Amino acid sequence: MTSKQRIDLNKVVASRDALKSVPAVLARRLKILPLYIADEMLYVVMEDEQDDVALSQLESTLPMAVKALPALAPENVVPAIKRYYPDTAATFETPLTIFEEILRRALLYRCSDIHFDPEKENAKIRLRIDGVMRVDHTLPLSTCAEVVSAVKVAAGLDIAEHRIPQDGQMSINPYQRQQESEEISMRVAVIPTLHGEKLTIRILATEAISAELADLNKIGMSDGHHRLFMQALRHSYGIILLSGPTGSGKTTTLYAALRHLKAPGTQHILSIEDPVEIPLDGVNQIRIDSERVSFSKALRSSLRHDPDIIMLGEIRDSETADIAVKSSLTGHLVLSTLHANDAAGVTTRLLNLGIAAELMASALRIVVAQRLVRRPCLHCVQWGKASDKDKELFSFPSDARVPIPTGCPLCGGMGYAGRLGLYEMFPVDKRIREMIHSHAAESEIRSHAFEKLGLKTLQQDGADKILCGLTTPEEVKRVTFAM
Predict the structure, then answer these.
(1) Domain that holds residue 273
(2) CATH of the domain at 231
(3) How far apart are CA 17 and CA 437, in angstroms?
(4) 114 forms bridges with which residues in the sheet?
(5) CA dihedral over 220, 226, 232, 236, signed as positive or negative
(6) What is the pTM of this model?
(7) Residues with Cβ within 8 Å of residue 416, at least 6 apart in sequence
(8) Is the link from the previous residue into 275 a cis peptide, with omega within 30 of 0?
(9) Does 212 lie in the same domain as 301?
(10) Inter-helix orientation angle 141-154/95-108, to 10°
């Protein structure tokens, strides 16, 4: 691990052993955050890197040496201390306080989902971090059942019902006595299993995460892809479609696009979502109840409110697809997502939903496919020669060097910290319109877009980012199924 790399407190997680070694009162008073312990040395970050007196005071209370690492933003040290050493109001442990502690840890890891998985002898608490699941710790089955009941109460679910699946939403502030803290919105799903009820929590985006995604330049688009996407956003009507599997970052890209479109303040923007994942000022966000109001009904109603731009969370059925496409041809710019394996597959998917080829050809402005890959941890990444197999697969030069994740205390031993997008996209030009109109095969559309026009495929975009050190060959192969 290199000591020259400054510590980004938004991208690392302090270890439990390091936190336990320094009392909360001392950490707050000295404005020092312990990060990890290695070789009988405690590594910390400080608000004032030149405060040798505070460092000496800390060292005098510990049975080990202390070394300060430089922080990328020293002003973030005190807020980080408050997150790691929360001054909560509870003085005794209850099922809800147990959940709040798990939630606080999940937020520190920038986790997207928390899973309570009951098994024969205990329950595993698993976190999905950067798209990958890891076991965080275990709970006794009885304690897990009590936590599940407490969450069901908070989410307005029936605690007496244990035989059918239930879904709901809730908001909790896990840092109740910190004035600058925010409520965390979550989706809650409960389902009965052999050993008890399984609880899954989806953490919706916090303000910190939302701020990071405020710019299209920050989500991983290359200069070429960014230029193509921005050109599509300048159209006054038509439809922009993003495709990819669940968890591939499509909604993040849509929100980044909305932030760009709302900036001038001269257009009326409506979004229709289930649920609203990120509150966005300047956009009229409509949360639908899928049991009573469908996407198609909400979309049809929204057209009466004179929108210039409509963001539709997902095209799920033929009726929604038909209204979205027809809306895009009557003076509205429509942005939405669709499940398809790649960009060219979007045209086939729309045909399967009953959209006439001539309408599709006229409506489409750009088609995008995307995936999310993990970034190597900047504090422990090493570089090595690319394997012969990777050179062949990604068309690397013979002397290509690639990042190799190794794992360190700052990334929890995972070797990765953070994610970015891989993209492939093509604008619907005159030739592609003709091909769609004549029901050309996906392979023909792909050949025109990625061979004749020279645009980058997902795999080629990944290869470029590997050589730049932004991700690894293993990650690109994992999400593009390249072997």
Answers:
(1) 208-480
(2) 3.40.50.300
(3) 63
(4) 127, 201
(5) positive
(6) 0.84
(7) 130, 132, 374, 375, 376, 377, 405, 475
(8) yes
(9) yes
(10) 90
